[in-house]
Design a protein that fits this description.
Elements (H helix, E strand, L loop, with lengths): L7 H21 L7 H14 L4 H17 L10 H12 L2 H25 L13 H117 L4 H28 L12 H10 L3 E7 L7 H21 L5 E8 L3 E9 L26 H11 L3 E7 L2 E9 L11
Parallel strand pairs: 1-2
Antiparallel strand pairs: 2-3, 3-5, 4-5
Length: 435
């Protein structure tokens, strides 16, 4: 037998009901029947087990009813337990047990009708011999009414149990639907929260990208500021020193130096103002130097006292503005370093070697006799590693070449300092934008 899970107070209540019904039956049982106690205990036990195990309760009821009919006992109050058990079999039993309960209704009504009509005539007093038609009609009428009475008495509780079960199933279905709707709503809220988190993450990523772009722009401006100021000051210092020495020999030559100093200072001031404006407002970038501006740079450096031999070989290729800016700054920084640290009496060789896939720039200058570079300052790849005394010019040139997709190396040979830069000229090479 299958036992249903019940709370402790439900089990206590069912046992209490069974005990009360048993006591009431024994008190009001006026028939001195020696089997009455067994019948009462059976019916009371079925009441106690009707919800805990409907199948066991139905078996106990059938066994007790059969015993009652075999002993020809008169039905008593405790027989109402049959109705409670049939209700429980329909409301709490398995599908098979419900069919057994329905069969019990029909079979029980037929057996009960036969028992009270022919076996135990104490209730209705039906005679066993029928002498006329009136007694026969009365007998059939009583049989029909008794059967219908038992059918209603046993069938209504079973139907009530079915209705309660259907109502409980509908409520469970409704609760399950409400639970599913709540789960769906919660899932939608979680999805909305996830979308909000994703959107916030995207905003954070976009903000981080903007911050990186701003930082890169500031770094670019700082490099340009260094290049502009260092170059212009080097030209101004060279012209001022030259004018100071030339004044003693020929005062008329001082005017050309002063003109160069003034023009260089004005250009530097304008470029610094543009860079500061970019740094302050973070708006559109000002026009940047390109390859065609190299001629003006050479003229300016020549006026500052350098002798420059600018040559080009191969077929020039079309370069992006970022790469042209990198080339211009590398040449500018190299010539400025020659003006500051090199032998300005010797010619500076600047070679542009155009190849199918890249442009190689070689800038060779003569070192001053007292300005030698320690071998420890060269890296394993032959690249010059400047110390703090020399500043960050070579580092800036190397960084610009790398950002343009190329490379830059420096070394000394035969008393000359050589800068070699390689900048890709193919469109397939991925560029890292300086802007």
């Amino acid at each position: 037998m299958i036992f249903r899970p019940l709370r402790s107070h439900q089990v206590v209540l069912d046992v209490l009901i069974g005990v009360v019904v048993g006591l009431v039956t024994l008190v009001f049982d006026l028939h001195a029947n020696p089997f009455s106690l067994v019948i009462t205990l059976g019916m009371a036990a079925s009441l106690a087990f009707r919800r805990l195990s409907p199948g066991l309760a139905l078996a106990i009821v059938w066994a007790t009813a059969v015993f009652e009919m075999l002993t020809l006992s008169t039905p008593q109050v405790s027989n109402l337990a049959i109705c409670a058990v049939l209700y429980a079999s329909a409301a709490y039993g398995s599908p098979r047990l419900r069919w057994f309960g329905l069969a019990s209704v029909g079979i029980g009504a037929a057996i009960g009708m036969f028992y009270v009509t022919f076996a135990n005539v104490a209730l209705f007093g039906v005679p066993h011999d029928v002498s006329n038609v009136t007694d026969l009609v009365r007998l059939f009428l009583q049989i029909g009414i008794t059967f219908l009475g038992f059918l209603a008495l046993l069938g209504l509780p079973w139907v009530g149990g079915q209705l309660v079960r259907a109502r409980y199933a509908a409520r469970s279905s409704r609760d399950a639907q409400l639970l599913a709707e709540r789960e769906t709503a919660r899932a939608e809220r979680e999805a909305a929260r996830a979308e909000n988190e994703a959107a916030r993450a995207e905003r954070e990523a976009a903000r981080a990208e903007r911050d990186i772009a701003v930082e890169q722009e500031r770094s670019r401006i700082a490099r340009d500021m260094h290049d502009v100021v260092a170059h212009s000051l080097a030209v101004v210092i060279a012209q001022a020193d030259g004018a100071r020495y030339a004044y003693r020999a020929d005062p008329t030559t001082v005017e050309d130096s002063l003109v160069t100093i003034a023009s260089t200072a004005r250009e530097a001031l304008g470029e610094v103002r543009e860079l500061l404006g970019q740094l302050r407002h973070s708006q559109g970038a000002a026009p940047q130097p390109v390859l065609v501006d190299l001629e003006r740079l050479v003229e300016q450096m020549t006026a500052a006292g350098l002798s420059i031999d600018l040559r080009s070989s191969g077929t020039p290729a079309q370069l992006s503005s970022n790469r042209q800016l990198a080339i211009y700054r590398i040449v500018q920084e190299s010539l400025t370093n020659v003006l500051r640290h090199g032998d300005t009496r010797s010619t500076v060789d600047v070679l542009f070697d155009w190849r199918p896939d890249d442009l190689t720039i070689v800038i060779a200058s003569t070192l001053r006799p007292t300005d030698t570079i320690d071998a420890d300052a060269l890296t394993t790849s032959g690249q010059y590693r400047p110390d703090e005394r020399r500043g960050h010019g070579v580092v800036g040139m190397s960084e610009r070449a790398t950002l343009a997709g190329g490379s830059l190396t420096t070394h000394q040979a035969g008393g000359r300092f050589i800068v070699r830069a390689m900048i890709p000229s193919t469109a397939l090479t991925q560029e890292v934008h300086l802007r």
